[in-house]
Amino acid sequence: MPVLSRLSAYAGNPIEDTDELAAKLKKEGRKIIKLNQGNPTAIFPTPKYIIDAYVSALKEGKTGYSFHAGIPELRQAVADRQNRLYDADFGLEDVIITQGVSESISFINSTFVDPGSRAVLLRPYYPTYLTFLKTVGGVPLFADYSEKEGFKFNPDSLEKALKKERKMPKFMIFSNPCNPTGTVMRRDELKEVVDIMNDHGIFLISDEIYDEIVFNGAKFTSISEVAKGTKYAIIGGASKNFDATGFRIGYMIVPEKDKTSIDVNRKIRDYAKMRLSSNTTAQYAFASALENRKEHEKAIRGMVDKIKDRVNRSCEVINEGKHMQVVQPNGAFYLLPKIDMKNLRLKNDFDVVQKLLLEEGVQVSRGSGFGAPDHIRIVALAPEDILELAIRKIDKFFVKHSK
Ligand SMILES: Cc1ncc(COP(=O)(O)O)c(C=O)c1O
After folding, report:
1. Residue range 256-281, pLDDT digits in tens
2. CB of residue 38 inside a 6 A radius of ligand 1
3. Which residue among 128, 239, 307 is best mutated to probe the pocket of ligand 1, counting the most ligand atoms within 8 A of its Cβ?
4. Greatest pairwise CA separation for the chain in angstroms
5. Ligand 1, atom nearest to 102 Cα
6. Which of 179, 210, 223, 252 to mutate to test the pocket of ligand 1 (most atoms within 8 A of CB)?
7. Which of 185, 175, 112, 182 is nearest to 153 (CA)?
8. What is the pLDDT of residue 256?
9. What pLDDT is recorded for position 109?
10. 24 and 161 housed in the same domain
11. Pick from 87, 244, 268, 386: CA 20 to 30 A from residue 98's CA?
């Protein structure tokens, strides 16, 4: 009898597919340009005022388990931030603190999904929406962004997917700004999503982990601004906006406005009880980061200005080449160029990513892991000269492998 469960076959993360190979190459003395993981903290040190708050919390002995749903100071601070930025009306009870947004995604799937349950993902999607879903036996239903229209949400594809499927999906999840495309949904697009969810009575989960990393004049709209009447949850956290990926602090806001939402909120807390607590010291540090608006404004402005330049310059360099074309992002820090595979002597994006790492020492992620085969995802956080060097190496690699 096999030891491993059948569903465990879906565990893993395509973003980290090549990490073992990269580690081996590094050990052999090769220099690797790592552009596969969206880890801002590896490039921009976590702001000092947040580190100081962490150190103070440690010194004050705040190192035990916290209440399973999080310390009240942080839950209130999360609600206050959302209310201030998006004119919402949340209270402490609506907020549950998790160990990163990753744990929120895990809890969502455990809460909603029985084997065979359906969930809608907008494609290209963030990979763990799919892997967590599949590890609990769920079945994805895909709707698409249209690359031809700058990765604009395509409502017809969502209506079509829902019409074709006899089983009503339990929830839909998407990220805005989007990982991996970097696009920011316009308010009218979001309203279309909400209308469709309302028509079909589907619970909507908006992953807003990049809501402050928006540039080039784009305007971010939170689902809480347009989802009046819809059953929804928001997920976000410390990793990106607050540049503290290693803190492992995320949150879920599940407004307790109707019976379904109350049930979801309570069940998420039951899952939180099972793992007792999230990082208590980091919760205190994040609470003071949320309260220190002046320092945060300075830090986020400085980081977003740099990210904007790095993303924009990378786009220019990519689009100068012959073998890749990329849609201009206005948020997050990812680029998802399409590769002209038919003119290359390479099998697929998996082949591209492996050989690119071996031959040029550039580590990116394969698009197929995000539901976008024939693409690669590049993290545009490194300084411009490094990004430019990496993209020119990718171009050289494609020229070498062209037909
Ligand atoms: C869209 C999206 N959601 C969730 C996560 C996970 O974030 P966390 O570090 O809070 O677990 C990421 C990380 O890259 C992400 O891009």
Report:
1. 889 999 999 999 999 999 999 999 99
2. yes
3. 239
4. 64
5. 11
6. 179
7. 185
8. 85
9. 98
10. no
11. 87
Give tens-digit pLDDT for 280-330.
999 999 999 999 999 999 999 999 999 999 999 999 999 998 899 999 999
| Domain with 225 in it | 48-292
Mean pLDDT calculated for residue range 174-197: 96
The structural domain count of the chain equals 2
Write the CATH number for 382.
Answer: 3.90.1150.10
Per-residue tokens: 61: 């002995």
Average pLDDT (135-157) is 95
What digits encode the pLDDT tens for the residues 149-180? 999 999 999 999 999 888 899 999 999 999 99
Question: Which tokens hold the place of 323?
Answer: 């073998």
Q: Is residue 1 part of a domain?
A: no
- Residue 214, in any domain of the structure: yes
Asked whether 239 and 86 are in contact (CB, 8 A), the reply is no
Tell me which of 15, 240, 334, 370 to substitute to probe ligand 1's pocket, judged by most ligand atoms within 8 Å of the beta carbon. Answer: 240
Residue 254: strand, helix, or coil: coil
Distance from Cα 16 to the centre of ligand 1, integer Å: 14
The last residue of a domain, from among 252, 270, 292: 292
126 lines ligand 1 (CB under 6 A): yes
- Does 265 share its domain with 309? no
Distance 30 CA to ligand 1 centre (A): 29
Question: Residue 295 and residue 277: Cα distance in Å, rounded?
Answer: 28
| Total count of residues recorded for the chain | 403
